[in-house]
Amino acid sequence: MRALVKPHAGPGLELREVPEPQVGPGEVKIRVLRAGLCGTDLHLEQWDDWAASMVHPPMTIGHEFYGEIVDLADDVVTGTGSANLQVGQRCSVEGHIVCGMCRNCRAGRRHMCPNTSSIGVNRDGAFADYVVVPATNVWAQPEGIDPELGALFDPFGNATHTALQFPMVGEDVLITGAGPIGVMAAAIARHAGARHVVVTDMSDFRLGLAQGAGATRTVNVAQEDLREVQRELGMTEGFDLGLEMSGAPAAMRQLIDNCTFGAKISMLGLPKEGFPVDWGKIITHMLTIKGIYGREMFETWYHMSFMLQSSPQLRDAVRSVITHRVGLDDWPQAWAAARSGECGKVILEIAD
Q: Residue range 100-104: average pLDDT?
């Protein structure tokens, strides 16, 4: 089968012919139909310090995907029950594999497992014709979720986990960072009943995607003053909720400066290194800041599925983040598009 492999330590990837993987105990084999390119995959191709610390080549990469079950281990529960799997079923996959035995796992907080490993980083991933994953990580999809939407469930889950930390009905929401996850968060905020959804970035292309996904107002912070935008919208006290999606220190400082007293902030964007913030303002304004990583297993997945099932508008808004579709054989085009800055989500079309 074809597989996009990190062949050795150092920059670069190779599309290789490799043996098809076989299921082991508790595992499922999936024929990959669509896969999403993530910032993580750019780091792995480039081979920065983070990649060098995490990956042991050779390794097939890729962790955002949708496919069809083609084989199951004998010990995997099968059948037509809601929790059962079967050959021919279409599915997405939670990319974080947890130990199941630590305190957090046993308490139902699997997204906080300190022993988490990742598909496509710590074990062979989904930029391939077939991938094998634990059955417990498989999320069966209904017919209404097409392959492209199904391939977005990993980043859409990040957006959902971040956006739904605090009630949004009637609130004014500031989202810093209009990457694919920030754009999807804007769509979720609109769906969840926010009053104003303002998205900031310095890329007009990505701000256009956010506008199309439901943002009330987009702001290129290199050209506009966010406080003037608040006045334009009739906001007198600042934003009630903040979603930090960029990892940029300046964006975090701007978010804090534009929040009202008692505002709540969810942080998903990962900064490259530590940076100072105005702790005095955080304290005196009584701000709540919560770090977010990945998805709650599997409460976030239920929220994603049910929101998409309930709203054609949300499905269209989430799908609109896809700007490029590239065949697996042409994978260098996908990386070039992702690095261009003029893109949203890039999808690899692996099979029909």
A: 97
